[in-house]
Structure prediction request, 452 residues.
Amino acid sequence: MDRRAGLKGSICVPGDKSIAHRALFFAAQAYGATLIIGLPEGSDVNASLNAIEKLGAKVSLSVGEDGIVSAMVEGWGIDGPKLQMPEDVHTVDCGNSGTTARFILGMLSGYPIKISLDGDSSLKSRPMRRLLDPLCSMGLSCSSCTWPIEICGVERLKPITVELPVASAQMKTALLFAALRASGTSRIVEPAASRDHTERLAEAFDIKLVKLSDENGFEITGPQAPCAPCDPIVIPGDFSSAAFWIAAALCIPESDLTIEGVGLNPTRLGFVKALQAMGANVSAECIDDGVSEPYGRIRAAYTERVRPCETPANESATFIDEVPLLAIMCARATGDSLIRNIGELQLKECDRLAAVIDMLSQCGINARVIENEDGSLDLAICGKTQFKVPDGIKVSAYRDHRIAMAWAVLSAACHVQIRLDAGDIDSISISYPGFLDEFSHRLGYAPIVRVE
Ligand code: S3P
Prediction:
């Protein structure tokens, strides 16, 4: 078994999870039917699909010969969500999906229905208050500030002017959904730019919003209802899924890998920018840069030595989901790296900041959190060219899909095999169900062994 064979050729990754959630939520609220092509199959997006179906959107799924999944979604338009048996207490299960949870809160704020929202243990520990506070000031009632939660919206919400405490595309989107159902103009501002898929899709669904020229944000006047676009929404490959292949190709000798058809939205490309600043052999080529979502190909090739990096504090939202991989790259750079303003990582599917520090400490890399005067958190990593994860070691991914996949990359980069329990391995199907099989197949060995 050659554990050092490089990753070669080209691959495609599943459709973008962030765009898929948004496309489903816009389509559910729209007049008319929307065709969405390229839905990813992970359980996160399924949570949104099941939620909108339960609320009365009609969804029909089909799978093409090429395996591409499409959904035709007939929205509820002016009728609003229709629960099948209104006398029942309706529960929508958001599973592990923070995106589904936040979007549903924003969307249902503007409808006078009572609903219970549930989810798994990770969702129960995630912060909702900072979103519920503005939504309640618009008119939503809620039974608590953590999951599970019972909510009741109102027919017409009050508009809101809000400055988000952190750059968060989920909060921004949830508030936009609520603002659609408000009477008057809402103004939503973030301290730094986060992914702008919502703004781009709003345009496709004929929603009028005015981007602010001097701040990160927009104004939107309600009430407005989305209108199903004539053209299908085509979802490009998920950059955050491609990132695992990029990092692996950079770390494994003789690799030269191209990822085709991947989303290249500039608000998602902070990882590529940081890697290029580190001297990594990675490039992105845009094939279509239209108003909707730009996409193209990314090529990554083995890079023996990389420089340490310091990422700008106001750009952390552009690579927040890629921090575990950026941390692995920093571990390989001789010298001190600083990944700035990433406190939000503590609030993801697990405390990813702690999980990353744990991961690096297992291979003797010193990583620590630095707290700044303004309360923001940086991750300092003291890298070295030679390090190794002990072969056969059993580790924990804290049931977090991105941590589990990062472990696969680290294990492959060190040419070893590590052990993860079944729950950690199964968590990968939240965003990228086929990852481990394809990764093992292309590597020629399994970097992760499942222990029951
Ligand atoms: C997402 C936004 C980010 C990201 C998450 C998906 C989205 O979360 O970490 O994986 O689709 O809007 P926050 O908005 O909480 O930063």
